[in-house]
Design goal:
The protein is an alpha/beta fold. The protein contains nine helices and ten strands. Bound molecules: adenosine-5'-diphosphate and magnesium ion (MG). Magnesium ion binds next to helix 2. Keywords: ATP-binding, Nucleotide-binding, Transport.
């Protein structure tokens, strides 16, 4: 690597500009029997963006996220990453972090043990592991809780542990499926602010799923709006809000929770 590709302490912003599409979905469809859950979804996920998949329940958001994660494969279409077809690459071989609603923590491991787990799997040496775990716990505000068990934490704190565990190995992309939906309004708003801060701090690409319009508009750099398995519109929150491309988008964004 030459001088131009030297990594910055913050994690290589310049490298990001050179190839700004990190993962590209091309004409992804998914059928379950006769049911078309996704139809012809094409979108380029940009390095470092906070992309939100927004749509009503049953619109195909989780199905699409599972295909990005490698938990499921499309019936047709493909995923391309760095010029390679990764459509059928197993989830373990994609360097993606995942946080789901009620994502299970290991109940017998402490907070630090949970967060350190992905590093143990990757055989990171113990000293590096401790340093990295301390750093990530600090970022999500859990330093004081490092030695507690999950059951000693609140729901919001458990979700922060899940977030820390997904970020600890510096994933290429963090996939979040309605991670805040089970939390009450106050806690949800607090964690929304934290998610934005963490996104800025880690500079990881976030693909975030929600059915909550105001959450999507508040958090994202781009919103992709789904309905009945189709991608209706993609754009910056302000643009989709002020220039909805269809009656569905206008009405859906107009619904205030
Ligand atoms: P969302 O996350 O937007 O609420 P999903 O992606 O979970 O929606 O589901 C989209 C549609 O696909 C739903 O109608 C759901 O019932 C259907 N679906 C999802 N997974 C399966 C499956 N494994 N088998 C059959 N139908 C499924
Ligand atoms: Mg879902």
């Amino acid at each position: 690597a030459g001088i131009g590709s030297q990594a910055t302490p913050a994690g290589g912003v310049d490298a990001g500009r050179a190839s700004h599409i990190q993962l590209e979905a091309i004409a992804i469809s998914r059928r379950f029997g006769d049911f078309q859950a996704l139809e012809d979804i094409s979108i380029g996920i940009e390095k470092g963006e906070f992309l939100t998949l927004l749509g009503p329940s049953g619109s195909g958001k989780s199905t699409f996220l599972n295909i990005l994660a490698g938990f499921d494969a499309p019936s047709s279409g493909k995923l391309v990453q760095g010029g390679e077809d990764v459509t059928h690459r197993p989830a373990e071989q994609r360097n993606f972090g995942m946080v789901f609603q009620g994502y299970a923590l290991f109940p017998h491991l402490t907070v630090a043990g949970n967060v350190s787990f992905p590093l143990r799997v990757r055989k990171v040496p113990s000293a590096d592991r401790s340093r990295r775990v301390a750093q990530v716990l600090e970022s999500v505000g859990l330093t004081a809780h490092a030695d507690k068990l999950p059951r000693q934490l609140s729901g919001g704190q458990q979700q922060r542990v899940a977030l820390a565990r997904a970020l600890v190995f510096s994933p290429d992309i963090l996939l979040l499926d309605e991670p805040l939906s089970a939390l009450d309004k106050t806690l949800r708003e607090q964690l929304q602010i934290e998610l934005q801060r963490i996104h800025r701090e880690f500079r990881t690409t976030f693909v975030f799923v929600t059915h909550d319009q105001s959450e999507a508009l508040a958090l994202s750099s781009r919103v992709a709006i789904f309905n009945h398995g189709r991608l209706m519109q993609v754009g910056k929150p302000a643009d989709v809000y002020t220039r909805p491309g269809s009656r569905f988008v206008a009405e859906f964004l107009g619904q205030v929770n």
